[in-house]
Amino acid sequence: MKYALSQPAKQGFISRNSPLFDEIHHIVAENSERLARLNQGYHEPQARRALLSEIIGESVDDSVVFNTPLYSDFGRHIQLGKNIFINVGVMFTDLGGIVIEDGVQIGPRANIISVNHPSDPVERHGVLLAPVHLKRNVWIGANATILPGVTVGENAIVAAGAVVNKDVPANCVVAGVPAKIIKQL
């Protein structure tokens, strides 16, 4: 499978020896400096959105509100809708792709992860990519973790501290480790 780093892969594996790792490390270095600027000192909301636009490589809508610090290990594979709120200390591990639709709220210290490593020790330094998709009006609670390949359905709530390792249906609340449905909305 061939990967174009301008677009996240749908699913796949990148070997440690792949020439893509040179391009990945170049983008990581560029965005590390941008993230440091974003997270240091105070910036007006418009300036923060402009810096985030540079990091993700596309315009961030004026309705997107986020608090710093904001973390990412890559940055270019984050897609943001409108009317999104992201609280302090959120980590986006986005090489595999993260799509955040309109109206999503993400609580402090949440982790959205689209990358994993193979269990085979020979391949473990490579990366497995699996996109994460947060549908409209999702609410991710404080310190929740969304693992690679998960889709959280429209209007769903992920409780604080939950670890989500499989898709969450629309209009429900999940909680626990691993997360399980505790309520229908």
UniProtKB/TrEMBL annotation:
Stored Gene3D superfamilies: Hexapeptide repeat proteins
Alphabetical keyword list: Acyltransferase, Repeat, Transferase
Keyword RNA-binding in record: no
Family as reported in the entry's similarity comment: Belongs to the transferase hexapeptide repeat family.
PANTHER family listed in its UniProt record: ACETYLTRANSFERASE C18B11.09C-RELATED, SIALIC ACID SYNTHASE-RELATED
Protein's name in the database: Sugar O-acetyltransferase
